[in-house]
Every structure is written in structure tokens, then in C-alpha cells.
Design brief:
Layout (H helix, E strand, L loop, with lengths): L5 H34 L6 E6 L17 H18 L3 E4 L15 H16 L3 E8 L9 E4 L4 H17 L8 E2 L3 H4 L5 E8 L3 H7 L2 H19 L1
Parallel strand pairs: 1-2, 1-3, 3-6, 4-5
Antiparallel strand pairs: 4-6
Helix pairs in contact: 2-7, 4-7
Bound molecules: zinc ion.
Zinc ion binds next to loops.
Length: 231
């Protein structure tokens, strides 16, 4: 029978222990930046939610209820803000109430309003922007659709991710994203999309759009799309 060398046994045990603690230290050091990143507020994404219209500019009008687009946009923006904040996003809203952002003295209130929105977005250092709107066309038009600026690949990608979730979760979603020539898409450097949540000109869709349940489905789909975009 082979005799176990006690000295070798002790050295081996010591080597294993040293190796164990070295591995532990390496693991700890490599995880520290991740821990700091996860807890530092700087690592949070900042998203600007822009509730379209407001004040004298009510936007579209509900076919049956005559609800103004600007009020509904604000409700959706607030719902989306709650969902994104709960998920750890730093959320900035361009408007928090029914008022427009223009100065009462401004000659061109629409222009002044859009300029203020741009200023808020730039000041916030936004990672991306989501502008909320409701569409209006003929009474047969239906479907949520996401718009992005021309030749803007990051925005197109964000639009695609959100549209895919609409297609999965909503009954009337459009099948395609679309290029939109809107100030909020053209004037902003950060990836930005304009979400038309549905058609207020269609009585059936209007009924859906004003329901709490549908609002949550739309906002949840946007949240899922955002998460998918950031993956
Ligand atoms: Zn609008």
C-alpha cells in the first residue's frame, strides 16, 4: 500500500485554499463595476415621454365622445411614465398637465410649443424619446402605428420593436412602421419615435382608446418594445 506523504498533502490543501481565495477575489473585482453600474443613477436610461398637443391645440377629436386627443395623449403618457419608472427608467415628461408649452405672448404658439419641447428633450440628455398621439382619418381607418424619422436607423429600430409588440398584443395594430415627417422626429438627435395609438375618427377604436384596459395594453406594449430595443 502506498504511503500518503503528509507534507505533500498539506501543501496541496494550502494550494487549493490559495487558488480558491484568488478566484474569489477575481470574481469579486470583476463584479464590482457591474454592482456600481446597477446602482448608480447615471446608469439609468433617461426617456422623454412627449404627450402631443395641449392648450389651444387639442389635436384630433373623438368621433362619438368628442374627447380631445391632447387629454387622451396625457393620460397615456402618465400611464407609460408609471410603467417605465417602475422598471427603473428615469422619465421626463414634456408636459404634465392640459396646458400647451407655448408662452401666452408668443406670436406663433405652435412653433413656440414645439421649440419648448425640443429644449426639454435636449436639457434632459434623453437616451430616447417617445411622443404619444392619436390618429384621425376616415372612419374605417384603424390601428396603432409607430413613426420614425427618415434615414434614422436607431429610431427605425426602436419603432420596429414597439410595432412588433403592438402586433402581438393589440387587436388592430398596423403591420408596418412608417416614416413620418414630424418636427419631434426631425429636430431631435436622440432616437425618437411618434406613436399613433389608434384612430379617434373610428368610433369602435375610439371606444377602445378611451378604455383603461386598452390604454394599459398599449403602454405595456411600448414598455416591452423599449426593453426589446435595449437588449
Ligand atoms: Zn396628434
Amino acid at each position: 500500500m502506498k504511503k500518503v506523504n503528509l507534507k505533500t498533502f498539506i501543501i496541496n490543501k494550502k494550494t487549493i485554499l490559495i487558488a480558491f481565495f484568488v478566484t474569489l477575489s477575481v470574481l469579486f473585482i470583476s463584479f464590482v463595476p457591474t454592482i456600481i453600474k446597477a446602482t448608480s443613477p447615471k446608469s439609468k436610461y433617461t426617456v422623454v415621454i412627449d404627450a402631443g398637443h395641449g392648450g389651444i391645440d387639442g389635436g384630433s377629436v373623438g368621433k362619438t365622445t368628442k374627447i380631445s386627443e391632447s387629454s387622451l395623449n396625457l393620460e397615456y403618457a402618465r400611464c407609460l411614465k408609471t410603467m417605465l419608472s417602475d422598471f427603473g427608467f428615469n422619465v421626463v415628461m414634456t408636459r404634465e398637465n392640459e396646458n400647451g408649452l407655448y408662452s401666452p405672448l408668443a406670436q406663433n404658439k405652435k412653433k413656440d410649443d414645439m421649440k419648448k419641447r425640443k429644449e426639454i428633450i435636449e436639457k434632459s440628455n434623453a437616451d430616447f424619446v417617445i411622443s404619444i398621439h392619436m390618429n384621425s382619418y376616415t372612419s374605417s381607418s384603424v390601428g396603432a402605428q409607430v413613426f420614425y424619422g427618415e434615414e434614422d436607423e436607431p429610431s427605425k429600430m426602436l419603432a420596429k420593436c414597439i410595432q412588433n409588440k403592438f402586433i402581438n398584443n393589440l387587436q388592430n395594430a398596423r403591420k408596418e412602421i412608417k416614416v413620418g415627417d414630424y418636427y419631434i422626429l426631425n429636430a431631435i438627435k436622440a432616437p425618437s419615435v411618434l406613436v399613433e395609438c389608434g384612430y379617434l375618427s373610428n368610433p369602435k377604436e375610439e371606444k377602445l382608446l378611451i378604455s383603461d384596459e386598452y390604454k394599459k395594453e398599449v403602454c405595456y406594449s411600448i414598455l416591452l418594445g423599449v426593453l426589446n430595443y435595449l437588449e
